[in-house]
Amino acid sequence: MNTSITRVAIFALLLLTAVVAATTYWQTWAVGGLNERQDNAIQRVAQLTVKRGRILAADGTLMATNVEKKVGDQTLYLRTYPTGRLLSNVVGYSTQAHSRTGLERSENDYLTAANSGINTLVDRLSGATVTGNDLHLTVQPNAEYLAEQALAGKCGSAVALDPRTGKVLVMATSPGYNPNQVEKDYAVIARTKAACEPPAPLLNRGTSGLFTPGSTFKVITMAAALDSGAYGPESHFTDPGYCIEYGKKVSNFSDQNGPEKFGLVTLTDALVHSINAVFCEIGKTLGPKTILSYAKRFGFYSTPPLETPVSERAPSGLYNGSKLFQPKDASEVDPGRMAFGQERMLVTPLQMAMVMGAVANGGIVMKPYVVDHVTAPDGTLVAATRREELGPAIKPETAGLLSDMLEQVVTRGTGGNAAISGVRVAGKTGTAETGTPGVNTTWFVAFAPVDNPRIAIAVVLENQRGTGGATAAPIARTIMQALLHSTANS
Amino acid sequence: MSLRNRELLTLLAVAVLTGLGFASVYIARQAEISAGSLTYAVFFLAVYAVAHLAARFATPNADPYLVPIAGLLTAAGVTEIYRLNPQDALRQSIWIVIAAALFSITLWAFRKDYRTLERYKYLLGLGSIVLLLLPALPVIGTTINGARLWVRVGPLQFQPGEIAKLMLIVFLAAYLREKREVLAKGRLKDFGPLLMIWGVAMLTLLATNDLGSALLYFGIFLAMLYAATGRSLFVALGLLLFAAGGYGAHHYVGHVRERITIWLHPWTTQPVPCAFNGQLALRQDCASYQLVKSLYSISHGGIGGTGLGKGTFTNASGGELIPFLKTDFIYSALAQELGLIGVAGVVLVYMLFTLRGFRVAHVAQDGFSKLLATGLTFGFALQTFIILGGVLRIIPLTGITLPFISYGGSSVVANFVLVAGLLLVSHQANSRS
């Protein structure tokens, strides 16, 4: 019987060996993945013993810090946000009850000093309080405040970048929320009312709101038209007021007098007056593949880089339902409608700001970033973000031609409301139909000053009765003025 | 050195470890607990002394390491329970006293010859089934966490299944010893009584909704059958039977299906129907809440652990983060505070006990003793695997106790009686040689 008993014994020991193996797995390999989980309350609560790093705006305004709470023999550090709603959709929150979002989530390792060196390890082992690193953001709080004020009561977003570096200067979204309410008054946030359905106050519309671009997409069509050499600014068109696609008329934007009709125009005029019929013809000539390949060079079809969590950023492009859609064959896309920004094209404000940034920056797309640098509790530099090129989208000459044309949109076209005296502004309006007559998604995208660009901006508003020029352009103007003022010395 | 002196020395080492454990909890949590906690170390010293003296008188030639190992695991359990809730540790200590008493009584009662038990095998077999059925009865039966395993009489609450397990092992050892030659021939009619008793036992277990025990008893049965006959075909057949039963249960018993779903997919990205409140929720926030939180606890420990008394088990307002921590999930608490280094050590101690147990089976002289020691030891190891495997997501989670460490009276009593059984077999074997 001893042989069979030995075999039973070996089996029993194998079972217990499996227990050791599984324990090893969960305590080594699996740790990273489990720490990422949003419902990992243990790790979150355990990190309350860490004096979390602060988050500061570009001018040093304190946006996130801690309050101390004594529980038993432990000191816990709970989060508080002195500036409340300001930039909350980017900063995010760190709570026990509702986990973390925004930079509080994605930059958790810096904020808890989890990736710091030996000193922190000694603190941890000796039981001394670990202090996290501070995040210094690129956002200009004054302009951010003005942007959020201008958006208040509406649904929409405004994103402004520095086209030379990719710094995020403004990233406003509406409706927003007060991060101080997340822990205890979450119901207040859940009940948020807004001029759109669902209100989604926790959504960062700047990076993950997907909107029909409307005529702002003409910037990309125009870039493709010029850069491919197929057209020049003086190319001539005859606009009958509509364009024929698949045997049907696609009309220009209509006001009370019916569809507009422009007759003989140049390519520049077509952009200045945002003539759909002309872009429809260009789209049919260039074909959807050429236009989409230019869109991809500007960053479409990939999730735009930023320090916020990847789940809070969405790629722009053609969408089939909720899925990004890569046409395999040209016949799958309506080229004319895509050329003036309808079809199934959906874009984020960040993406449109990147497009304008590239045009302003001689055709080169800069990698956007919102964390300027990270400092240790004693003030020493831990990490600094370096400007980085994502690559050229168009030739410098194309960018120059396009800048001139976009400037004329503001000086003599649909974008007059964005004009700032003494500053050369280039921009493009957008008024996208939503399917409900008279209710539009409106846009204004711009950069300024044309001769020395410091700002690239995209403003979008949902459920508007007016045009992009009437509704979004004044907001873009307000933000640009504030930024020109606050970045004058930088 | 005599066997008992060796036991005494090992016990002293264990007592020092126990003292260190309580001291470190005390140092880590001075604000909340008093220095009186250190009396626990003295308490354990007394319990160890009683167990040692009982062994010295009744089974002087028994294996010297089983008692110290049991003592070490028990102390580790009470230390962790104490750290979680001092009140519970007090209650558990009372059960440990009862367990030590029953341990001594068992040793004393069977010190001459435990093999008289063989004569009462059918009585024991029947008795175990009656015990298993008890919780299914109305009035005294109690359902906790979906399983009907408890019997409540007045203020006392216990799991008769723990004692039934021991009786079943004795029955199987006696029955298989008698029938092993005929069984080895593989004639179907000889399996009749065995299959019948097992059918009844399995039905009972399904009626009480307790998967873990079903797996445990069936595993013990197969291991003892294999040890007795050496026929791997029986094991294969048995496993097939169990797989078929498990498949059937998966289809027809909601409780079983849910356990398996939780095991396979503890996390969902889309809300699924939640049985607790009838609403939609992510599975990790509903059905698999316990399992997932326990995994977070284990992973938070990492390699070195947070240190005894420094783990995170409550939120900032004192609310519990992991349900059933002191019973089913005591291992997740230990894993967080002791880390991989610590709990791997704990599992090694379980392995050591298993090795000593099978050694006893090896040196035992007669078939009954060999099978008894095999059954007791394998039952111990398999029970450890079933609960830890469940906690670690190797197998579906079922609520059974971790021997010696989990909070729970019936479990600690049954396991000390189990040690007594192994000591008796060991003493008998060593006395002959």
The share of residues in helices of chain A is: 25-40%
Order of strands in the sheet with the most strands of chain B?
1-2-3
Looking at CATH, the homologous superfamily of the largest domain in chain A is DD-peptidase/beta-lactamase superfamily
Number of domains of chain A: 2
Report the CATH architecture of the largest domain in chain A: 3-Layer(aba) Sandwich
- Mean pLDDT across the residues of chain A is 90
Topology of helices and strands:
The complex is a heterodimer of chains A (490) and B (433).
Chain A: H1 2-27, H2 31-36, H3 41-46, E1 55-56, E2 62-71, E3 74-80, H4 88-91, H5 102-106, H6 108-111, H7 118-126, E4 134-137, H8 141-151, E5 156-161, E6 168-174, H9 186-190, H10 205-208, H11 218-227, E7 236-239, E8 242-245, E9 248-251, E10 254-255, E11 258-259, E12 263-266, H12 267-272, H13 276-286, H14 288-297, E13 317-320, E14 323-324, H15 335-339, E15 345-346, H16 349-360, E16 364-366, E17 371-375, E18 381-384, E19 389-392, H17 396-412, E20 426-433, E21 440-448, E22 455-464, H18 468-486
Helix pairs in contact in A: 8-18, 11-13, 11-14, 11-17
Chain B: H1 3-28, H2 39-58, H3 66-84, H4 86-109, H5 121-133, E1 141-144, E2 147-153, E3 156-158, H6 160-185, H7 192-207, H8 211-229, H9 232-252, H10 254-264, E4 272-273, E5 280-281, H11 289-301, H12 330-363, H13 367-391, H14 409-432
Antiparallel strand pairs in B: 1-2, 2-3, 4-5
